[in-house]
Each structure stands twice: as C-alpha cells, then as structure tokens.
C-alpha cells in the first residue's frame, strides 16, 4: 500500500507542473545568469528574473526586493544577523534582538549567536494558544531594539501570529520587523507591506517547489540595509554572492505562481481534510484533541495530542504506512518534549504524546480517512485495545 504522506510541513512533493518547468530549464538554459556578454547568459538571466517576479507577486512585493537564497534557513540568518550587524556598523546604540520561544531553531540560534557580538537576545514567552501577547512585546520594546523576528505561522502547530496588532508596536519602537514566512507563504494571503515587514523569508520546498531554493524580501522604501553573511562576486545586489541555480529558481517561481492562483482552492481542500481526519479519529480514539485548537491557524497543519498514557513515538512506530512527524524531537532512545509545545505550557507528558500532521494539495479525502483509521488502530494496539470490527480500516 502506498505511503500516506502527512508531513507536508516538513517538505512538500514537487508539483508535476513545477517539475516540467525545471526539466525544460535544464534542457534549454545552460548559461550562467551572471554572464551578460552572450545570449546564453542573457537567456538564463531572463529565466531568473521571471522567477524573481513570480516570488515577488506571491508576497505582494517589488521584484527588486527579492534576494534569492538556498532556503529559509539562510534567509533567516541573513535577515537577523545582517540587519543587526549593519546597524552596529553604523554606530546604532540598539542592541536588543527580540524573538519568541516557539520560533524555528534557525531563528532562535541566529538571535542567540549575536550575543557573542555584544547584542542582547530576548526570547519572549507565548500564551497557551501559541500567540505572542501584545503587552508582552510592548514591554520588551521599551528598551531600544534593533530587530524583532516573528514567525507568521508556526511549523509545529500552524498557529498564526497577529501581525495586525504586533507590527505597529514594532514600527512605533523604531525596530525592524522580520517574519519567517516559510510555512505561511503560498498557504495564506501574504502582503509584506500590509504586514509592516522590513524583511521576510520564504522557502521553495514548503510550497511544492524544489529543495535548495528560497528568498529573502528586503524592503526598499524606506530602505533596509544588511551586511552579507559571506564574501564573493557581489551577486544579488551584493547581499548574497554565488552563481544562481536557474533551473531551481524557475521551479521556485512556478511553484509561487501556482500557489498564488490556487491558494483559495488549496485552503478549502486542506481545511476539509483536517475536519474529516479529526472527525474520524475522534470517533475511533476518544480523548484525542488538537493543541491550540481555537487559535487562528493554517488550514492544513495541526498538532494532535493523543489520549493519556500513549507516547506519540510508540504510536507512530506502530502506524505502518503513515509519514508524519512527532510533536517532539527524538534524541537517541529518549523522547524529548517539543520546545514549542512546552513554551505553550504543555507538560512534558502532554508534549510527549503530541504529533504533527499536515496533509497537502494532492491528499484525497479517502487518504485522510484511511490515515485516521491507521493512526487509531496503532494507538489502540499500543494501549492493548482493539478497534471494533465495523470501524476497522480495511
């Protein structure tokens, strides 16, 4: 039986339409996009610039504000470290760098790394629903702040932050606001200007594009300046040197185009899958629930908490044929609670029985039902119970 893939939050399969664009690019455009002295290079450059416009369109940005990177991890590092270092080089007294406890590891580590350079990392707590309280941010901003980094949609729970409320606080304090949009872009409407962003990171493989490509939005007006992470030939307006992979970026651009056109349809489909999956799972496994269920969230990413007495790791190991992620990290043979869920106030035991599920664009309703049955059967086997024959997965 084909694997039931419910781990789209980790990575999405490459859309066949994206694959077709990449294959054509590989076959037709072999030039270096930075070689402007011949037709082959100019054609390759045109391919890259078309992709840049497609990414910009998805974010409601200007194409000149898009800097290509290898993915969101690089983009997050460049945004946070690059902005902080440039301000310091200009003699700015602002040394505070603010983020929240539920951010992606690359953001948390980027903020912490800056402590060695004289900056003050501040990791703010979240509410039980995973959102940052505006009064908590306002108090933190009372001390002059250089950069605030907030994830638009959490990668474990799908919880959305309220930029409508939080962004004006950052702007009033004179700090730069960066958003990790890796999970949000292509899933919900994004307008970087309306969100009050100075910087924003995107990853291709989270929206049905190829791995190895991403982008950083860098606002032009008022201009945001960054120190590059490494030296080189000065490509990407001097912010990110290196030869651009034209075929990957062509795929990235096509993925953005498709996401922009089909976002509403995808969202309706994913919301229906989530509802169908949870209805079926709840019928077969009483006591199951969703972490931060009532918070604003992405349509297709949710953190399921299994009934008391079950470890998520044990259930997933018993659930043959499902690809899903733990709501916590596995280190050796010991289950380590998710720092995201702990930051939301879950106990160690509650975090240990949580797992992340994320269906996708190509997941069918029948697959959602079958996945719920397989997970329920696995949980009942682990707990020593049996699913009634009439409700068993066939």
Give a brief rundown of this model.
Helices cover 39% and strands 15% of the residues. With 394 residues, the chain is of the alpha/beta class.
**Mean model confidence by pLDDT:** 94
The rounded Rg comes to 22 Å
Low-confidence stretches: 328-334, 388-394
Number of helices: 11
The amount of helix comes to: 25-40%
Compute the number of strand runs: 15
In terms of DSSP E residues, the strand content is 5-15%
Q: Which sheet architecture does the biggest sheet show?
A: 7 strands, mixed
Distance between the termini: 12 Å
**Structure classification:** alpha/beta
Shape: globular
SSE run: EHHEHEHEHEHEEEHEEHEEEEHHEH
Lateral arrangement of strands in the main beta sheet: 2-8-7-6-5-3-4
What does this structure look like?
The chain is α/β, with parallel strands linked by helices. 39% of the residues lie in helices and 15% in strands. The chain has helices at 16-28, 39-59, 72-89, 105-113, 134-140, 163-172, 246-284, 312-318, 339-343, 348-352, 365-382, and strands at 4-5, 66-69, 96-100, 120-124, 145-151, 176-180, 199-203, 214-218, 289-290, 302-305, 322-323, 325-326, 329-331, 334-336, 354-357. Strands 2-8-7-6-5-3-4 form a seven-stranded mixed sheet, sandwiched between helices. A four-stranded antiparallel sheet has the order 9-10-15-12. Strands 1-11 form a two-stranded parallel ribbon. The chain is globular, with a radius of gyration of 22 Å.
């Amino acid at each position: 039986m084909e694997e039931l893939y419910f781990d789209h939050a980790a990575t999405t399969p490459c859309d066949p339409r994206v694959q077709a664009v990449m294959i054509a690019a590989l076959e037709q455009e072999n030039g270096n996009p930075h070689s402007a002295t011949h037709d082959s290079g100019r054609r390759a450059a045109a391919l890259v610039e078309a992709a840049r416009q497609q990414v910009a369109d998805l974010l409601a940005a200007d194409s000149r504000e898009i800097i290509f990177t290898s993915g969101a991890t690089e983009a997050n590092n460049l945004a946070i470290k690059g902005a902080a270092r440039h301000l310091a080089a200009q003699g700015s007294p602002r040394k505070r760098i603010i983020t929240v406890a539920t951010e992606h590891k690359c953001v948390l580590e980027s903020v912490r790394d800056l402590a060695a350079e004289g900056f003050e990392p501040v990791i703010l707590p979240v509410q039980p629903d995973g959102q940052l309280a505006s009064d908590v941010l306002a108090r933190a901003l009372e001390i002059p702040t250089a950069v605030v980094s907030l994830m638009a949609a959490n990668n474990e729970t799908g919880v959305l932050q309220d930029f409508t409320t939080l962004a004006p606080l950052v702007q009033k304090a004179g700090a730069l606001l960066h958003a990790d949009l890796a999970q949000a872009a292509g899933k919900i409407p994004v307008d970087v200007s309306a969100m009050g962003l100075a910087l924003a990171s995107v990853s291709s493989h989270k929206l049905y594009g190829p791995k190895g490509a991403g982008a950083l939005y860098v606002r032009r007006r008022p201009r945001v300046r960054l120190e590059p992470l490494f030296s080189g030939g000065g490509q990407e307006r001097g912010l990110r040197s290196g030869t651009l992979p034209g075929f990957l970026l062509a795929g990235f651009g096509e993925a953005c185009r498709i996401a922009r056109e089909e976002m509403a349809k995808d969202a309706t489909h994913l919301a229906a899958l989530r509802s169908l999956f949870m209805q079926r799972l709840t019928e077969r496994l009483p006591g199951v629930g969703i972490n931060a269920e009532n918070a604003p969230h992405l349509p297709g990413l949710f953190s399921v908490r299994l009934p008391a007495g079950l470890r998520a790791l044990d259930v997933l190991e018993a659930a043959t044929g499902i690809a899903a992620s733990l709501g916590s990290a596995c280190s050796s043979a010991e289950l380590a609670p998710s720092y995201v869920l702990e930051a939301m106030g879950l106990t160690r035991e509650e975090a240990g029985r949580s797992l992340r599920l994320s269906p996708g664009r190509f997941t069918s309703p029948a697959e959602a039902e079958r996945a719920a049955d397989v997970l329920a059967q696995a949980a009942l086997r682990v707990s020593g119970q049996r699913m009634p024959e009439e409700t068993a997965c066939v």
